[in-house]
């Protein structure tokens, strides 16, 4: 009889020790699970805030160098001044045909055959893949000729393709390994992109190839972030806004409309 009682006592002690072990393990696990939480006090009350919630409440992007422009429904629509520029790019507000806070104009020396100077970049996030046409709204701000002071360099170095087209004719920037190339200035993957005509005020037009105007196209085969580069060429060429639009989703008239919403900006 005493032997049976001893066995029961030993069994009960073992059971209690097992329960204590489970309790201690659960306590340690709970501490580990909430280790990503921090406590703060507000009005005398302790508030627990998780690190995830803190990350989700990100501050607005206040550094233009980190701007990321989000494509929506086949449209990228950007005010050109929303980038970091060197000192000879000037923000101007004369006239009433620009949009937003003003337009940028190059007032430094001319780089007619030498792209890459006074370069600025725009980071663009593409979700809807495909072929996009490029247009910008620009003006001649020096002189009275529509064929002078009317162009700036443009490059998409990490896009899947960057070319200009007129009817069945397609040309590629020089030094990319692709041919044919346009007549006129082009170098290191840059197109000279111009506007023409004697109406010198702001209008939507972006072309390359001298005396045989070809429109500009960019191909994005995969969703992701791409870089658009702009560099100075002609003194006095003013740029107000640019768009990239996928013709299968957005018509040109809608893309360049004053009512078209600007692209959302987040931090890159």
Summarize the structure.
This protein has helices at residues 2-33, 51-56, 252-255, and strands spanning 37-42, 45-50, 67-70, 75-79, 89-92, 103-106, 120-126, 130-140, 151-155, 161-166, 169-171, 186-187, 190-194, 203-204, 207-208, 214-220, 224-231, 237-246, 264-267.
Can you give keywords for this protein?
38% strand; seven-stranded mixed sheet; globular; alpha+beta; ten-stranded antiparallel sheet
Q: Indicate the structural class.
A: alpha+beta
Q: Compute the number of strand runs.
A: 19
* Helical residues, percent: 10-25%
The percent range for strand residues is 35-45%
Low-confidence stretches: 1-10, 12-38, 40-58
Average residue-wise pLDDT: 85
Number of helices: 3
> Span from first to last CA?
78 Å
Give the radius of gyration.
30 Å
Instruction: Give the SSE order as H and E letters.
Output: HEEHEEEEEEEEEEEEEEEEHE
| Main sheet properties | 10 strands, antiparallel
Shape: globular
């Amino acid at each position: 009889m005493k032997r049976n009682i001893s066995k029961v006592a030993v069994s009960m002690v073992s059971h209690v020790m097992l329960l204590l072990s489970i309790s201690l393990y659960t306590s340690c696990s709970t501490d580990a699970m909430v280790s990503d939480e921090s406590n703060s006090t507000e009005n005398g009350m302790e508030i627990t805030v998780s690190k995830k919630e803190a990350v989700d409440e990100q501050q607005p992007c206040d550094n233009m160098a980190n701007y990321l422009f989000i494509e929506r429904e086949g449209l990228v629509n950007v005010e050109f001044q929303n980038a970091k520029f060197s000192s000879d790019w000037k923000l101007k507000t004369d006239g009433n045909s620009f949009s937003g806070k003003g337009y940028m104009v190059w007032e430094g020396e001319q780089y007619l055959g030498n792209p890459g100077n006074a370069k600025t970049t725009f980071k663009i996030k593409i979700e809807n893949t495909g072929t996009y046409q490029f247009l910008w709204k620009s003006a001649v701000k020096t002189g009275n000729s529509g064929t002078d002071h009317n162009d700036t360099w443009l490059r998409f170095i990490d896009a899947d393709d960057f070319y200009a087209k007129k009817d069945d004719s397609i040309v590629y920037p020089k030094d990319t390994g692709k041919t044919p190339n346009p007549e006129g200035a082009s170098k290191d993957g840059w197109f000279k992109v111009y506007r023409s005509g004697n109406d010198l005020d702001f209008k939507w037009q972006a072309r390359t190839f001298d005396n045989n105007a070809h429109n500009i196209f960019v191909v994005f085969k995969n969703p992701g972030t791409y870089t658009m580069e702009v560099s100075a060429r002609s003194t006095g060429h003013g740029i107000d806004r640019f768009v990239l639009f996928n013709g299968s989703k957005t018509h040109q008239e809608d893309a360049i409309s004053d009512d078209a919403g600007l692209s959302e900006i987040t931090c890159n």
